[in-house]
């Protein structure tokens, strides 16, 4: 159970441990190696790889070096604030470029402003160990319409985007140009209060991660907070649509967002992968070991499957505070005629619903527990949803042979059957050794 604590502590503080040397005499700091096997420190630049150090706050030098970078270049940003003008963005047009903070402390390296903070237009770009805040539109836009792959977004803190925080865009779905095989991991995305919108879009036009038509994206080990407008409505914290394929969504914590995770959204159109004649808005998605909480603000559905083929929704924990008047009285939904889904071993305090227009095929819905109570969790008010001893969710699930680890990396089942929800309760002695992953108000 201690593993998730390590993840969250790393995300908060980038704990300084050992250091290593880098080319050009740049001194980098590496987080403690034992912080988590899910979110280890980003590896140092490979020996012999070109590195460029950007002086603190020197945004003009940063813009020039991003523009002039050759392949296999790492740009190391010294601690400081880099302020972009409204008409600027860090446009990455060279493949295999890495943009990262030199110190390893993401909160000490801040890029702010611009129409986007960062725009990715080519293959194998990495953005890591940074804070990106207050862009007019997107913290990071990945332009799939240019046909690219291999984007890696790692250990970033994204704050107050005008629209989507991570936007994976697309163009004509029949042209075969998409952004594929990307990663968003070990990051924090949040509004300090609520989304405010832009001069061209309302506050409700926002998401944490918005993937249009991409294939093979992995969204894991992130925290999303307050992805919502002041009135409430907003897009899902994590959305994959336009016939996106093979999306994996694992071990994310979503708190007080209007909507949680959506595989598919609407009828396919010309932006969909393959064009308007495709049948699905998402195919082959996995949503596993996520925690979705609505504790202080009203919320809509936590997990949605819309025009989605072969969705697998496994071992998620959803809890909506009863004292808050929510927009719906269900946690997980599946709808629209083409949708097929397996929904197993989830733990919620709200029902699982087949919604009209009804799917032609019944979902496989089993092993779920939909009457959770606060007393089942170690400290729900502090977002600690580890199960307590004798919680009715223990051993309540069904066998899912390929869902073998919980949100902490503990092996399931630990008892005679898997537990419902993201946490697998282990023995009392191991339970007492663990510390709440959010007990220190890490986020």
- How far apart the termini lie comes to 19 Å
Question: Biggest β-sheet: count, sense, barrel?
Answer: 20 strands, parallel
Number of helices: 3
**How helix-rich are the residues, as a percent range?**
under 10%
Rounded mean pLDDT is 90
Radius of gyration from the CA trace?
A: 21 Å
Q: Shape from CA axes?
A: globular
Which parts are unreliable, with pLDDT below 50 for 5 consecutive residues or more?
1-35, 429-443
The CATH level-2 architecture is identified as 3 Solenoid
Number of domains: 1
SS-based class: mainly beta
Number of strand elements: 39
Beta-strand proportion = 35-45%
- Per the CATH scheme, the topology name is Pectate Lyase C-like
| CATH classification, class level | Mainly Beta
The CATH fourth-level homologous superfamily: Single-stranded right-handed beta-helix, Pectin lyase-like
Layout of SSEs?
Layout: H1 2-13, E1 16-21, E2 27-31, E3 50-54, H2 59-68, E4 73-77, E5 80-84, E6 90-92, E7 97-101, E8 109-113, E9 116-120, E10 126-133, E11 138-143, E12 148-149, E13 152-159, E14 166-169, E15 179-180, E16 183-185, E17 188-190, E18 209-212, E19 218-220, E20 223-225, E21 236-241, E22 244-245, E23 248-250, E24 253-255, E25 259-263, E26 282-283, E27 286-288, E28 291-294, E29 303-306, E30 308-309, E31 311-314, E32 317-320, E33 330-335, E34 341-344, E35 347-348, E36 351-355, E37 364-366, E38 377-379, E39 384-387, H3 428-433
Question: Would you write up a description of this structure?
Answer:
With 443 residues, this protein is mainly beta. The protein has a single domain, classed as Single-stranded right-handed beta-helix, Pectin lyase-like (Pectate Lyase C-like), CATH 2.160.20.10. It has three helices and 39 strands. It has a 20-stranded parallel sheet that branches. It has a ten-stranded parallel sheet with strand order 6-9-11-14-18-21-25-29-33-36. A three-stranded parallel sheet has the order 22-26-30, with no helix packed on it. β38 and β39 (384-387) form a beta hairpin. The two termini are 19 Å apart.
């Amino acid at each position: 159970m201690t593993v998730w604590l390590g993840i969250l502590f790393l995300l908060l503080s980038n704990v300084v441990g050992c250091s290593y040397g880098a080319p050009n005499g740049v001194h980098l700091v590496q987080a403690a190696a034992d912080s988590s096997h899910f979110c280890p420190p980003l590896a140092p630049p490979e020996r012999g790889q070109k590195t460029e150090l950007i002086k603190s706050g020197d945004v003009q030098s940063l813009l020039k070096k991003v523009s002039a970078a050759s392949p296999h270049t790492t740009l190391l940003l010294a601690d400081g604030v880099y302020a972009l003008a409204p008409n600027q963005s860090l446009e990455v047009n060279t493949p295999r470029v890495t943009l990262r903070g030199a110190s390893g402390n993401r909160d000490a390296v801040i890029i702010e402003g611009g129409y986007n903070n960062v725009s990715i237009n080519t293959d194998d770009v990495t953005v890591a160990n940074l804070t990106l805040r207050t862009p007019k539109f997107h913290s990071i836009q990945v332009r799939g319409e240019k046909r690219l792959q291999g984007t890696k977004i790692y250990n970033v803190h994204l704050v107050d985007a005008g629209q989507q925080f991570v936007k994976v865009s697309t163009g004509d779905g029949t042209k075969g140009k998409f952004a594929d095989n990307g990663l968003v991991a070990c990051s924090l995305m949040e509004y300090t209060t609520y989304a405010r919108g832009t001069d061209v879009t309302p506050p409700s036009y926002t998401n944490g991660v918005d993937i249009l038509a991409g294939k093979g994206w992995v969204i894991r080990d992130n925290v999303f907070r307050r992805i919502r407008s002041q009135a409430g409505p907003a897009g899902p914290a994590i959305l994959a649509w336009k016939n996106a394929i093979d999306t994996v969504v694992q071990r994310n914590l979503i708190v007080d967002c209007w909507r949680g995770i959506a595989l598919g959204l609407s009828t396919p159109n010309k932006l969909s992968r393959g064009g308007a004649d495709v049948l699905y808005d998402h195919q082959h998605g996995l949503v596993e070991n996520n925690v979705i909480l609505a504790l202080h603000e009203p919320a809509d559905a936590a997990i949605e499957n819309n025009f989605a083929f072969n969705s697998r929704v496994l071992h998620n924990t959803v809890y909506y505070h009863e004292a808050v008047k929510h927009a719906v009285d269900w946690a997980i939904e599946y709808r629209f005629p083409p949708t097929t889904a397996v929904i197993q071993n989830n733990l919620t305090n709200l029902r699982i619903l087949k919604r009209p227009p009804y799917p032609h095929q019944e979902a496989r819905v089993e092993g779920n527990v939909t009457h959770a109570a606060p007393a089942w969790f170690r400290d729900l008010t502090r977002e600690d949803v580890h199960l307590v001893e004798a919680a009715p969710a223990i051993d309540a699930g069904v066998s899912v042979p390929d869902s073998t680890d919980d949100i902490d990396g503990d092996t399931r089942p630990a008892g005679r059957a898997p537990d419902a929800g993201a946490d697998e309760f282990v023995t009392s002695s191991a339970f007492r050794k663990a510390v709440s992953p959010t007990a220190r108000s890490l986020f």
